[in-house]
Amino acid sequence: MIEKKSVTNNNLFSSWLTKLIKISALFSFVILSSCSPDDSTLSSSEKDSEPQTKWESVQTILSSRCISCHRSGRRHASISGLILTEDIAYASLVNALPKNSKALSDGKKRVSTSGNSEDRLSNSFLWTKINTISNSAYGSKMPTRGSLSFSDIAIIKSWIESGALEN
Predict the structure, then answer these.
(1) Mean pLDDT of the region 123-150
(2) 131 vs 56: CA distance, rounded Å
(3) Which of 2, 90, 111, 133 could join 25 in a cystine, given CB atoms 3.0 to 4.6 angstroms apart?
């Protein structure tokens, strides 16, 4: 009888925990989605007048948050094939094919410059990795330690949406 009650309690806890994780994921998605204006609410003149995020801003984020793992000789760099040092980061990201087999089979590039702003985001593996709530079919969220700030995520999002220019 005690064993059956213990199993039932474990199932209840597991069910409760699963619901909590789903609610947390949904809440995080809502918060992240509300961080920047929806393109559909902007007129084309407003979209054209939006400042484009510069590569230097993105490189600053990569240097401060990603380079400790994504530099030559590091485990993440070896697994992903991605080096983010200033001398090769842009070429390693923009229109480069990811090493991740799932992302590759889904037609993603590390950072896509094709299509409209929505296409660029949905086809950019970098966006998927920094914008994922938890582990996904594409592997762990990046960075693995901590999270990027909302402003860092917004800068990278804007840069990808605007065509990932190197200016």
Answers:
(1) 87
(2) 21
(3) 133
